[in-house]
Each structure stands twice: as C-alpha cells, then as structure tokens.
Predict the 3D structure of the following.
Amino acid sequence: MKGYWIILGSDVKDPQAQAEYGRLWKPIAEKYGAVLKVLGAGALQEALHSQRVLAVEFASIELARACYADPAYVEAKGFALRASARELLIVEGELA
C-alpha cells in the first residue's frame, strides 16, 4: 500500500529558504520515487493557520518513513521550516 506525507502549511514567508528546500528536495524525491501532489484550495475545509495542502506520494509507507529519516532530508527540512509554518503527517493508504 502507498505511503503519503500530508503537509498543511502556511503561506511561504521566506522565498529564499523555500527555493533552497526545492533545490535540495529534488534529488531526495528522485531517490525515494516521491511524487508531489498539490491539492486544490478546496481540499482545505477548516483551517486556523494553514493555507496550503500538499500530498507527497511514495510507493510504500516504509519509503515515506525512510525518506523523512534520511539525513539529506533532515538537512532540507530545516529550510522548509524556515520558509513556512507547517504540519506533516505520514499515512498509509490510497488517495482518490
């Protein structure tokens, strides 16, 4: 069964940090076969602080967890957290 990161994020407040995260994320995504799925604005029905919803699809929950724990991602994550406030869930299943 597939694994997903579900990310709820605020608007980007540091575009340079976001750009660096994107640069670092590209080879990590390739390594783990991660596919970014930007969910439309209608996906977020109730929110206090989130303006964006993203899903990152992996072939398995194990790959999703391994990617999050990868030292290269730990480094990249620092830029993501500087770029915007976010919450990240790792779940197993199939998104419609």
